[in-house]
# Entry
Amino acid sequence: MRRVRTGIDVGAALDLVGGVLKWLAPAFLAPAAVALGYHEPVWPFLVAGAACGTMGLALDQITGEKRGAAVTPRESFLVVALIWLLVPIFGALPFVLDGGQLARPVDAYFEAVSGFTATGATLVPKVEALSRSMLFWRQLTHWLGGMGIIVLAVAILPRLRIGGRQLLQSELAGPTEIERLGDTIRETARRLWRLYLALTVVAILSLGAVGWLGLDHQLSFYDAVGQALSVVALGGFSTRTTSVSGFAPITQYLLLIFMIVAGVNFLRLYRVIVQRRVSVLARDEELRLYLLFIAIGTVLIAVEVLGGGYEHGEAGVRHSLFQATAILTTTGFSATDFSLWGPLATLTLLLLMFSGASAGSTGGGIKVIRHLLLFKLVRRELEQTVHREAIVPIRANGRVIDEKALRSAVVFVLLYLLVFAVGSLLLVADASFSGEHLSAFDAFGAAAACLGNVGVAFGFAGPAGSFAPFSDFSTIVCAVLMWAGRVEIIPVVVVLTRAYWRP
# Structure
């Protein structure tokens, strides 16, 4: 039989996928421990963990001769795309085996994709009806996917000594220049995860102290842990159906601070927090634009919220700032039902969905750095229109950006808008056939929320509802959009081209 030859080492890619699944299996022990503590069934998590580990070991055995093979940029695209497709399958198993609100495989997979991609879109109409252990697993999927399962794999898998840089470059959100924080790329990944873990601990202790001191009687320690796992990952799942609107203002302010911090490039955060190089932030153009976007969004929302009488005083200002930040950073928390606000506020929130946080953060979306590069490109074009012979290099954070990186930013934004348009059209078309009440604006919101990993949208998918009214086809479309948004589209498009597979 003739052997099919391809231009990539599929065996090496599958070997790494197996390694990631094998190391992910122990994560199911955490919700199992919570189930024991609350006297709930443990077996769904044990079965799911065993299935995940078995698949990982099976891939290890099948591709044994490829163990330790170098991973080139071409293989890294396939690894990233496969991992973010396969991991939610095992993440969905506990929901299916539990037989509760997410017993249907399509629903369970949607919820797991939303969790691991740190999106926060949900099909659960009544979150409190989930068992404590299932609710904890739902929050934990956010945390595992926030910094990135592949970053964790680079940190712990000894075989990734050669190809780790390519995988880390593919995994970190946005066009991020990988700065080594240690002697090796593996040490860089470890330090990123240590910072991520430290930020999570600080969030848990801070929120836990608010509840323990009686400053927020609605915030139990369980709620504090759940919100902390979600906010550091810039996800959107909450332990409450009403998201964080039922918590006290001090809790919302704390969550606001953590959202802003987690939306900053983690490589920059490490330089500042651990190495105490504060000057790194002072000259960071992306950070300045990131904070400016939050400020502009807040002002535009506040103009209508306060001027239109939707809310008043400190609450109106707080909710405007909170929602602008939650949507821009793609966290997706809701401190109020913003679907009741007027058109200026809702349109502002829709536009903020296309921003995203900083590159190298745990957020989704287009990323602020790409907006910065596009602004600079437009300015250069205007200058060269007047002075045709002028050579105007584009700089960001003091560095000259090469033309290839600029083209990549433009191509990414165009692909992003194309995928968004196709997703919106599919949702509208399916709604017309299935009889769903879905306006064009609500379809835009749902597509933007899923592709940008924001989670919360408008209409029945807004703060007071869920994605449950969508048909199975629309649910799958939304899951694909979340997956494509998390891997930043390019790996998906590349893997689907014929040229990728040619020798």
Summary: The first strand starts at residue 395 and ends at 396. The radius of gyration is 22 Å.
